[in-house]
Amino acid sequence: MKKSITFIMIMIMCMVVNIVKGQPDWWNDRVNQGQILSTTVEPESSLMATVGNGYASYVVGGDFIYIGGIFNGPELSIKNVSHRAAFPNYQNIVVENSDVKLEYAGLDIENATYTRVFSFASSPSVTVEQVFYASQTDRNTLIQEITIDNTNGDGSFVLQLNNPTDLEVSDDLEIEVVYSDDTATQYLACIKQPEVNFTTCAAVTTATLNGTVEVSAGQKYTVYYVTAFYSNLEDSTGNNDLISVCAGIFKQIYSEIDQMLQIHKDAWAHLWQSDSSSTPPAICSGSKNYAFQSIVGMAEFWASRVLFDTDTQQYVINGVIPPDEYAIGVNNSVYTNVVASIALEWAIEAAQLIGKTESIPAGLWQTIADNIKIPFDSVNQRHPEYDGYKGQTIKQADVILLGFPLMYNMTPEVRQNDLAYYETVTNSQGPAMTHSMYTIGWLELGNTTKASESWPLSYANAQQPFKIWTETPTGGCVNFITGAGGWLQALLFGYGGLRIHQDQYYFYSPQLPPNTTSLKIRGFSYNSATFNMYWDDASVEIELTSPVSIHFFNLEYDGSVQRLHLNQPLKFDLGEFAITPII
Predict the structure, then answer these.
(1) Which of 284, 348, 397, 533 is the most exposed place for a label (fewest CB within 10 A)?
(2) Of 256, 273, 290, which one is at a domain's C-terminal end?
(3) Are residues 142 and 249 in the same domain?
(4) pTM of the prediction?
(5) 325, 349, 413, 541: which is the annotated catalytic residue?
(6) Is residue 137 domain-resident?
(7) CA proximity to 402, closest of 388, 422, 427
(8) Among positive and negative, which fits the CA dihedral 437, 439, 443, 446?
């Protein structure tokens, strides 16, 4: 009987420990809601999560931090081309207790933080939580919070910390220790090789790492590690004392350090709730001339690249690398020439909109756009990739981009022939966005069977557990945003069926990805308004979700036209429809 009681007591103790150490319900709930990407085993460093705020960024556990605008290396060089300067990772703090165990870790997408939770075999009642983030409100600062919870302990606990990165060495920077004490260390880091004739320098003020933190029984304690940066690129006031400015930023953060994480989360909550996809500033602010100059600049470039072929009476563009990066120095890439034609016509249209047609050679540009060579095989009813193309293996989507995103005018037969032919000659180990474009193309033609073959390949390069995209399924460039962007386009423009036209958002009949019963896209933007779109295999629902001050909107479907009103969803049978602004 005594043995049974002992066994029961041990089981109860194990259950208590598991409750303490296991992933808490709130964490699991947020994982299930897609707000946290969680793991119990962190991947190799190249596939670890990134912490950043658009100014300062680093890979968790990596040796380097990168900050905006600071590059090392000459402007023109083959062997040592200019690149982002690598600062030592002052935030690369690791727990070094011999009995430490990572219980779980995760990237909080909603709050832009990375968290690790540890347990210790010799102190089973102790947990340590390590939170990394780049401040959303104070861009020059990176912050780390380490909380030691010994409230249930019966003795003091000593946490051992270390930073394995050499903080005074960089291949890109000359680093000088300006000042150091038990609280903070200050560095001045200057690039070794300027791009031009300006040497970029940055001051760094970072918390000095204390190797041990002791917490008494019954106590809970948080230690904060802040790193602040300030470069001479930001020195608009003419104050060259970078060290003192940086130290001031550091002190300001510490003056409210116990509130910084909540301030950071609140800022992200505001960002998620705002319309982050509004009209570009150049147009929103009324700077039409600036936008127009950019458009005209593109047209001038393409007009300068064409040659007139007197034999064919066509304009040609020679010596290019098209989207297919295996094809180097080819002539008359069909994709390139279509883009050139679009750019020229866009500039003419922009000039007409703002009354500046006299400022451009509109007649010449229209002639070039109308007569530029667009390679076409009339026998096989498809587009050759370039002059002389004979079926060579291609790296990635190229010709099929004519249908989307360029929406180049062609018959369904030609569109299908392009898709079918180039699918057979494309490198199967190429970049993921290729499969996204095939998914969109096949869905556009109503071939859901072919689309379902391409669809899973479009996200096969998203590596677990943090969905870090690689260029190919086996590696290549890491954080391959082109692949992620392609997958999102396959979802919105493929299964969602969206096509953006000058006067409306048109949707050919939305469809569902394999093994999906319904889909909802929240917050897509159009003319300063936002919308939600929900569909299943029978119906579609559209909702206007933001106040409209410039336009009203009509929903056109099945021969019917209805006004969209704020927060009043309209539901209709699955099929083609359009959202049209009323000026």
Answers:
(1) 284
(2) 273
(3) yes
(4) 0.82
(5) 325
(6) yes
(7) 422
(8) positive
